[in-house]
Amino acid sequence: MTEKTPASIRPTPQVLASFIDHTLLKPDASRAEILRLCEEARRFNFKTVCVNGRWIETVAKALEGSPCLPIACVGFPLGAGLSESKAAETKACIAHGAREIDMVLDIGSLKSGEWETVKADVAAVTRAAGSVPVKVILEICLLTEEEIARACRLCEEAGAAFVKTSTGFSKAGATLEAVRLMRASVSPKVEVKASGGVRDLKTFLAMVEAGATRIGTSSGIAILEEAAKGGA
Hints:
This protein is α/β, with parallel strands linked by helices. It has a single domain, classed as Alpha-Beta Barrel (TIM Barrel). It contains ten helices and eight strands. An eight-stranded parallel barrel has the order 1-2-3-4-5-6-7-8, surrounded by seven helices. Helix 4 runs parallel beside helix 6, helix 6 (about 115-130) crosses helix 7 (about 145-155) and helix 7 (about 145-155) packs across helix 8.
């Protein structure tokens, strides 16, 4: 697990940037917007750039020579595809330069109590990813607390590196309560990513205090600018 704790984090732009997955997932994102995202990530030293698979090769090339990592989303945003499709998509994205994979959980199977199916779905992706870390998006707004906790345990058993709150495309995004629950439901070797609705410094810092070690946001620049002005 990344050695970052609420007690040690200093809310400077440099420190905050190391938590941020700089994200653009809207379906109508253009090449120019994707390239601008990459230029911003390089300029502000964000941890990663997170995009749909269509753009992962473009992002990987644009980030060459930078410590910023390209991330591809798989089974996005519903998670309702075949495990074989998710695994194939994972392999293709990695072949095109992805250094992390954000997959969407099989939410319908979880709601049906089909635990082994859920676990097998995640495992198919982690196997396909090999040494590339996999984050599993739970879509917490659709789940009960019991389902969130169970999903987190299943993801860890299936080899996930992170559990993640939300796609940003459903009814709601990350909540502090869910982040705390997710942190408590996995071992220290699994990290928590808060994503969806993190748009200001106060919310960012609260998510980190709750246990998130990665923040997915399209508002990263605004958050860093707020920190530079001494906000929160």
